[in-house]
Amino acid sequence: MTSTETTSTAVAPAAGDRRRWFALAIVMTAAFMDLVDVTIVNIAIPSIRQDAGASVSQIQWITAGYALAFAAGLITGGRLGDIHGRKRLFLVGIGGFTLASALCGFAANPEMLVAARILQGGMAAMMVPQVLSIVHATFPAHERGKVFGLFGAVVGLGAVSGPLLGALLTEWDLFGLAWRPIFLINLPVGIAGLVLGSRFITESRAPRALKLDLVGVAMVVLGLLMLLYPLTRGEELDWPLWGYMSMAGSPLVFASLVAYERRKAARDGSPLVELSLFKVKSFAAGIAVQTVFGVGLGIFFLVWTLYMQTGLGWTPLRAGLTGVPFSLAVSTAAGLSVQQLVPRFGRKVLQAGALLMAAGVLLYLWEADRYGMGIRSWQMALPLVVMGVGMGLIVAPLTDAVLSEVPKEHAGSASGLINTVQQMGNALGLGLVSVVFFGVIGDRLSPEQVGPAFVDAFQHALGWVAAVMAVIFLLMFALPKRPAQHVEGAGELPAVEEKEPELVS
Predict the structure, then answer these.
(1) Looking at residue 84, what is its pLDDT?
(2) Which long-range contacts (CB under 8 A, 24 or more apart) does 176-184 make?
(3) Is the pLDDT reported for residue 12 higher than 80?
(4) Backbone torsion region of residue 280, taken as left when φ is above 0, otherwise alpha when ψ lies between -120 and 50, otherwise beta
(5) Among residues 10, 234, 290, 422, which one has the fewest Cβ atoms lying within 10 Å of its Cβ?
(6) By the 8 A CB rule, do 75 and 417 touch?
(7) Cα separation of 249 and 253, whole Å?
(8) Exposure on the CB side of residue 339, measured as CA atoms within 13 A
């Protein structure tokens, strides 16, 4: 299935047509909804666990299932938009995301919630890749700089508002629904996006759409499930033999994937993964950085929430407010790193970010050990700000650093792969929580033992996160000292302008 259309199925809005700004607001709102949905759930996890009676592995799959489905569907979602129309896929995605949110909100049991979250991640993978593609098809080149600036602001706002919104909705217990409004809030937003999107978004397709690689997607999902499922269930099942066999078989599936992708590239030139990219040293190192970074973040954010609410007994609102300094530090440092620091100091900025994150984690570890159950929110502010600054120095310029030596004809494919592996790393980190956090919590704890046990487990997990940051620092030596500028044809913006938005997510 390929598309032969060269531009779009409808005339793009003229430069003076205000409809394109309505279209921008709609797709930005959808992107914001996805960003918030990732962070809003973490803060409500303890409430979900208590109210719904979810097990440890189910709690992990509520978050990891979304990340896994999102990662597996990103590139396929982009290609489906090229083949069948980006507007059409966007509307399918936002409609499905809204339906999945309703299923999450009305879930009768933890199993239904996990299934609905997986569906939600899959629908997000249909919706999110179309955002930049629709922007490219709707706005002339001289306006896109302003548009991508707005997109960056939306990302920052999503990082700050997600935990706070989740805390407020959980704390308010609207209509006695406990945690459910964190999902149900998507319903009016999604319905409005569906109605307005069908009216204001212009349909478009890629000049040359690649074929789908559903076999490649299936092999990626199988390999990850063989690794993640035993990790998340192993602790509560007392680590059965089949779990070790499944994890040992996962690398074999990925090796088979590599062989299959080579054959597919030679046969029809449309593999899921462009293997030639890994011959570029900086890209291969960057993919490793993104994956490991995702693992570290997946571990930290889940155990941090459990530590504050279950370990220390804080309310969701107090936990959400405690994270505000972190979010503000990330947003501030991200802006400075791209605009001022990286152009002057290059790769050293990213490495400084990894060291700062490690230092913040170790400072947090020291404070958690010193103050124990008596720690206060203000005492967490310093390590969280240090971690936030470090994260901001990494997340904003990392994509450019990874793409700087990639041939521009493959920049779109490379961009999609970067986002995919970060989500996969996040899913892997969430799976590892059962080992690095729940694995050190004893069974059959009395109520008075729960708090101290969670505090001790948090400290153990922080040691792992610090080690992950040290690995990232070392991997960054393989990145170019000074990333190439956009004008040289590297990075996401040129990927969009080079008519390859189908793989940019």
Answers:
(1) 82
(2) 177/105, 178/47, 178/51, 179/44, 179/47, 179/48, 179/51, 180/104, 180/105, 180/106, 181/105, 182/40, 182/41, 182/44, 182/105, 183/101, 183/102, 183/104, 183/105, 184/101, 184/102, 184/105
(3) no
(4) beta
(5) 10
(6) yes
(7) 7
(8) 8
* Overall size of the chain counted in residues: 505
Q: Are 458 and 368 in contact (CB under 8 A)?
A: yes
Give, to the nearest 10 degrees, the angle between helix 141-172 and helix 129-138: 140
Mean local confidence (pLDDT), 382-408:
84
Q: Which residue has the tokens 């598309």?
A: 3
Residue scoring higher pLDDT (420 or 106): 106
Q: What is the pLDDT of residues 456-505, one digit of tens each?
A: 999 999 999 999 999 999 999 988 887 655 433 333 333 333 333 333 32
Distance CA 92, CA 193 (A): 11
pLDDT tens column, 315-346: 888 988 998 899 888 888 887 887 788 888 88
The residue-averaged pLDDT of 75-80 equals 79
For the chain, the farthest-separated pair of C-alpha atoms sits apart, in whole angstroms, at 67
| Cβ burial, residue 339 (10 Å; 0-12/13-18/19+) | exposed
pLDDT digits (tens, 9 = 90+) for 133-153: 787 777 776 776 667 666 666
pLDDT at residue 336, as a whole number = 83
Whole-number pLDDT of residue 410: 67
Q: In whole angstroms, what is the distance from residue 415 CA to residue 132 CA?
A: 12
Tokens 């919630």, residue located: 113
Alpha helices in 53-109 (DSSP H): 56-84, 86-105
- For the chain, what percentages of helix, strand and coil (3-state, to nearest 5) are there? 80, 0, 20
| 300 pLDDT above the threshold of 70 | yes
Q: HEC states along 370-425?
A: HHHHHCCHHHHHHHHHHHHHHHHHHHHHHHHHHHCCCCHHHHHHHHHHHHHHHHHH
Contact 297, 464 (CB under 8 A): no
Whether residue 430 contacts residue 64, with contact meaning beta carbons closer than 8 Å, is answered with yes
Alpha-carbon distance 412 to 194, whole Å? 27
Nearest alpha carbon to residue 458 among 301, 253, 265: 301
Is residue 350 very low, low, confident or very high in pLDDT (cuts 50, 70, 90)?
Answer: very high
Nearest to 423 by CA among 125, 130, 153: 125
For residue 1, what are its two tokens? Answer: 């299935």
